[in-house]
Specification:
The chain is α/β, with parallel strands linked by helices. Helix content is 42%, strand content 15%. Among the domains are: 12-168, Rossmann fold (3-Layer(aba) Sandwich); 196-272 and 287-296, no CATH class. The strands form three sheets. Strands 2-1-3-4-5-6-7 form a seven-stranded mixed sheet, sandwiched between helices. The chain has a six-stranded parallel sheet with strand order 8-11-12-13-14-15. Strands 9-10 form a two-stranded antiparallel ribbon.
């Protein structure tokens, strides 16, 4: 057991949830902060730290800087950023502004990107410390050492610099699990703001149902019990750990009683990983009349005669399951095998067939642009995502350009076979972000991936799919009786069919409808802001 430090006063820790620099900040849509921010904030709060959260998704960069500066006081221990690569430029700009304004305040980066690139992250002048991998068991000791001006060199899992030289402590040998990860203390944030009009609820609604949902998140497991070789869990060697069905039910009852929750967002990467636990959970929801809506991630191959069959899927619907999110990755069996997905392409269609007898919304995520993937395989993936939406109108499919993670087999292949070189510094990563492929929601421009033989075709095809996805997801089966709404609906429907035909026939040029959509969005944005 690691002894926790004594905190004499309410030393302050400011945790920043970065935005995404490619997009304007969200205003009216709620979504709880990054899971790591919530968990670490709770742990620090329970150890008598004064925790403040800055949520960059709702702020411009200037607003985030001003709000953070306003939180800084003489007892501020550090400002912590949890950073994914997609958030890097935003975090980089804010960190530099804060360091320039308050050079004495320590800035700490953690999360996926700093874990993968700790040395180059901490060498940046705006970053004082980098926390590597999991830190639930060490964050209090680290914060306590900084608060009390104690030596931190023996605290595992941190990276820091001294006189331009990087020093790394021993790896943290205590993994995150449910002995050191508590349930989230929602008092550290404006939780009511996040719980209403939550975008998870909006994505889970056919019409305006989301307005009645009060959403709260829970973690019932960590990691995943599969070994897909592109996954961060595999790269970092994270094991699968879980709470019991009984614990989950009790937590849901608490959230209902305490906050009026009627929709549970289960954060797990693979909630259905333990069959017995799922059966107990669903049985308890039904027999105890818990009456809750919920949303999960799971695997498409769980839909079979021995697990989620036509009988059990009806029980899931009756128990309140609204959305089944599945990472299905590719329409090519060769690519699925290359990814060690341990799944068949036919599993995707079987899952959709079984779900189609319910009102549960299937959400499928595909990837394109992997090293070793052929042009035909990429085209097949986009085509399948399109055909799925046409055959199963309630489904929602998305294709995202692939991003490499160092430490994966695909990264090694990109380096050895295609000469790929990642940026060498935080500044280079931030600069690259300005050139990223905007339609890919922050994923690299395909021209930086040498294994994509025709980056122009890749970009053009993806623009067509973006148009198809936006339009097809917005075509509700409930059409307003107002003439103006009907006209807009039919225009969308026509453009959607044109985009679908383009994707199925491989014709991506002269994409006039995409230009019109961007023009419409700009006009609408201007009219709203005027």
């Amino acid at each position: 057991m690691i002894k926790k430090p004594s905190i004499e006063n309410r030393s302050r820790v400011i945790l920043v949830n970065p935005g995404i620099h490619l997009f304007a900040p969200l205003k009216d849509v709620g979504m709880f902060p990054n899971n790591a921010i919530q968990i670490l904030g709770t742990i620090l709060q329970q150890s008598n730290f004064d925790v403040r959260i800055v949520d960059g998704r709702y702020l411009t960069i200037k607003e985030a800087i001003d709000q953070t500066l306003g939180f800084i006081n003489e007892d501020t221990v550090f400002i912590g950023f949890s950073v994914m690569t997609i958030q890097l430029r935003w975090a980089y700009l804010v960190s530099h502004a804060l360091k320039q304004a308050r050079p004495q305040v320590k800035i700490v980066w953690g999360g996926v990107h700093p874990t993968l690139f700790p040395d180059q992250t901490v060498l940046d002048e705006a970053v004082d410390f980098c926390v590597v991998n999991e830190c639930a068991a060490t964050v209090v000791n680290f914060a306590g050492a900084l608060a009390n001006n104690n030596d931190y060199s023996s605290i595992p899992g941190i990276c820091y610099k001294h006189n331009g030289t990087v020093f790394s402590t021993a790896p943290n040998s205590i993994p995150d699990d449910f002995t050191n990860i508590p349930y989230i203390d929602f008092s550290i944030m404006d939780h009511k703001r996040y719980s209403k009009n939550n975008n998870i609820a909006i994505d889970s609604s056919i019409d305006d149902e989301y307005k009645q949902y009060v959403v709260y998140p829970i973690n019932t497991s960590l990691g995943c019990n599969f070994k897909c070789n592109f996954c961060i869990n595999v790269i970092l060697g994270r094991d699968y750990k879980k709470r019991s069905a009984e614990e989950i039910i009790e937590r849901i009852k608490f959230l209902k009683a305490e906050y009026g929750a009627n929709f549970i967002h289960i954060f797990d990467e693979n909630f259905f990983g333990d069959k017995k636990r799922v059966y107990k959970f669903v049985e308890a929801l039904l027999t105890e009349n818990v009456n809750i809506k919920w949303r999960v991630q799971l695997r498409a191959d769980y839909f079979n005669d021995n697990y989620i069959n036509r009988s059990f899927v009806k029980e899931l619907e009756k128990a309140g399951l609204l959305v089944a999110v599945m990472g299905v990755e590719s329409a090519s069996q060769r690519v699925l095998d290359m990814l060690n997905k341990r799944m068949k392409v036919e599993d995707i269609m079987r899952a959709l067939e079984i779900l189609s007898i319910t009102k549960i919304i299937p959400r499928l995520s595909f990837m394109a642009g992997m090293p070793g993937e052929t042009e035909n395989e990429m085209q097949s993936t986009y085509r399948l995502a399109t055909e799925i939406k046409e055959k199963f109108p309630a489904s929602e499919s998305v294709v995202t350009p692939f991003r490499l993670y160092p430490g994966s087999n695909l990264y090694d292949l990109a380096v050895s076979e295609y000469g790929y070189k990642a940026p060498n510094s935080l500044a280079e990563w931030a600069d690259l972000a300005d050139k990223e492929y905007i339609e890919g929601v922050g994923y690299q421009n395909p021209k930086y991936y040498s294994w994509i033989t025709n980056s122009d075709t890749f970009a053009a095809r993806h623009r067509v799919f973006i148009l198809f996805r936006i339009l097809s997801w917005s075509l509700s089966p409930y059409v307003s009786s107002r003439i103006s709404r009907k006209i807009i609906y039919n225009i969308k429907r026509i453009l959607c069919k044109i985009s679908a035909a383009r994707l199925k026939n491989g014709f991506y040029r002269l994409n006039v409808e995409y230009v019109l959509l961007k023009l419409f969005r700009n006009i609408r944005k201007y009219s709203i802001s005027s």
